[in-house]
Records
---
Amino acid sequence: MPPMDMDLQRPAVAPAASVPRVDLHTHSLYSDGTLTPEQLIARAHERQVGLLALTDHDTVDGCQAAARASTALGITFLAGCELSGLWRGREIHVVGLRVTPTAPALRTHLGRVRAQRVERLRAIGERLTRCGLDGQGMSAAVLALPGTPTRMHLARALVAQGHARDVDDAFKRWLARGRPAAVPAEWPALEACIQAITAAAGLAVLAHPHRYTLSAGQTRELCAEFRDAGGAGIEVSLAGMGPGAAASAAALARRFGLAGSLGSDFHEPGVPWRPLGRWLKLPDGITPLTALLGYPSAPDRLPAP
Ligand code: AMP
Ligand code: MN
Ligand code: MN
Ligand code: MN
């Protein structure tokens, strides 16, 4: 058989199991995820993830352990974080990728946010105590955990003490806006989040644009301001994003010249719509964020770590 025919018989796409996956949005128990960095990386390895970023809420504390575990398993690891910011009074998340965890500007930013979070958790605890619960005990227990203390940790404590059926119920009953223990967060401005990431040599990515309650016009204004403040990318392929939301995010990426990022927003095993690792599949006409990071866009040609 001539070589040409051989080529035609070869499958156009490499067999699924041999193509490393890319995941640029994941959490560990250094924020509101449930796995240690080592467990997260072991799971990523099982799921053929070849390039992974750990992006815990407002911390890089899990990155050293994750980097070590990644090296041992042949995974290319990027230190990252997911910063909570405010834009026009709304909470917006900014993913920082390939940050230098020791950069002074990033450390200062994270230190300030941690101090605000500690204050907020204590204030929520006091409100729960006024409602007759052991709020101070719960907030003290959450503040003793490693990493970023979040309302998710308090929600789990409320469930464990029988004050809610599950974490959703804990938010609905106690923690969400308008509920008895709600305390608003004073996050840094969006621009400050972008600056903290870029000052740490990282790339700033607008997280899950479909999850904000903004009009289409406001979302376009957000993207324009995000790019003008130094933002590099936008999440266009996230686990749980429907086709409509993905198409809108892709249109925003094209319109504002933002690179497309992708990931799972993995928090814990057993959530079937947010599996760790996704196939690198970006819509046409979009620069993959991996290309800005210096990786070829074909995931099967990732360099060894
Ligand atoms: P925090 O950053 O401390 O405000 O905690 C926010 C975390 O709690 C988020 O990352 C979500 O995972 C979770 N969360 C926030 N609001 C809700 C809600 N209404 N229902 C369930 N989980 C929520
Ligand atoms: Mn979270
Ligand atoms: Mn988020
Ligand atoms: Mn996230």
---
Amino acid sequence: MTMTDIAEQARAVLGRLGVADPFDPDGDLVCRSPIDGHEIGRLVSHRPTEVSAAVDRAVVAFEQWRQVPAPVRGRFVRELGELLREHRDDLGTLVTIEAGKIVSEGRGEVQEMIDICDLAVGLSRQLHGLTIATERPGHRMMEQWHPLGVVGVISAFNFPVAVWSWNAALAFVCGDAVVWKPSEKTLLTALACQALAEEAGRRAGAPEGLSAVVLGAREVGEALVDDPRVPLVSATGSTRMGRQVAPRVAARLGRTLLELGGNNAAIVAPSADLDLAVRGIVFSAVGTAGQRCTSLRRVIVHESVKDDLLTRLAAAYESLPIGSPLDPATLVGPLVDEQAWAAFDAAITQATADGGVLVTGGRQAAVDGGGSYVEPAIVDMPDQTEIVRTETFAPLVYVLTYDTLEEAIALHNGVAQGLSSSIFTLDVREAETFLSAVGSDCGIANVNIGPSGAEIGGAFGGEKDTGGGRESGSDAWRNYMRRVTNTVNYSTDLPLAQGVEFA
Ligand code: NAD
């Protein structure tokens, strides 16, 4: 078999990122690029004993690392951030090759890694607890946050590198070790991140084994999930995966941080700035070919502006450049694989059977050289049927119509998932109602921007079937530490709490 240009490019980039030739022609894991669907090479899965050995090494590394002062741990993450800056374009290109993201989004994903490293370095001097008033004289009560242990990270294909960094950058400054099982669809980017983490570790004097990658499918993830030496499993992927992982970790009383599927909506109110709404909707629904957990899947539009909005959206959709994500002019790259195309096609068939009307798109797009490229689709639905309540991981948006804001919010919240949401309105009452306790039930709620494209400063995650986890900014670092409450008696007496007498 002759190697395609894309495979050659992937191998060259891997070399520049410090990954020694990882391929084995007899390997069971096939690395493919969604750009042309061709094989880049094969890798060998780790056996459960190898996963266990990686955890052994991580435990040893953790035992050293937890004794290093947090601001000194921050130097390791600073080195990682510097290496990511240096290699941003190469790693971004690898994301493009392996996940099919357009160049700008591939680089943007690496920028997000750099941003979380910056945030984590700052945090390394801010891992603070509280001092709490005590009822006992001559006593002091406080809380401390200590390193937790080995963090298992399981990640999805669509953010092949950023999800690891959201977890790892915080975990490292918090004093933890990380064992990462990336998606079996994006193994090369994971190897590249690991090479950069190892180099950062050498520069900063971090212990070996602090960062590890284990490769394979579900069974390899399960080995991490079931290992009692892994106190926290942070798992990003489908709700189906979360339902499998959560009870297994709970059975051994471990913790999970779950970042699962979304079914994100935008309400478009009568007062909306429609130009802004169209731009926000198109980016959110079509960016990353609809393969973000925060991608827009439902537009809930007021009946008075529906026709105008649909006319503008259809025009915008029909002018979208679809093609190889390596071409800088492309805005819509490929779906990850043929199954994703089949799911997109089946969802449109079901939606139209339910009475939906295909407004635009929905077909395979003609792009030379293989890969699963589609014309992003809009389906105007009479109701929020089961298919609308299901996450289809593709550029497919359903349009629902409303009359009152209460009705819009009920439709909005009438799905099992609760990740991200938005409203386009210039009416402050509507905006504030949407953000209030009786508004959106999601972990992320926006006004006059779409639901996708979060920054790392805020906590990221969602409710209900999205799993309830929060990663990235705000106080998400607390997930990676254990809290200890301390009471210190500096008196000569021994008063008991609640007035208890024991003498
Ligand atoms: P997926 O669920 O198929 O796989 C995700 C990861 O879980 C992979 O590494 C996979 O090998 C592993 N896995 C699957 N079953 C497992 C099990 N039983 N035990 C241990 N590991 C297991 O998801 P995907 O197709 O890669 O990604 C798309 C999905 O991820 C979408 O639903 C999307 O919304 C979601 N996602 C969510 C977020 C978020 O932050 N909420 C971010 C990205 C993607």
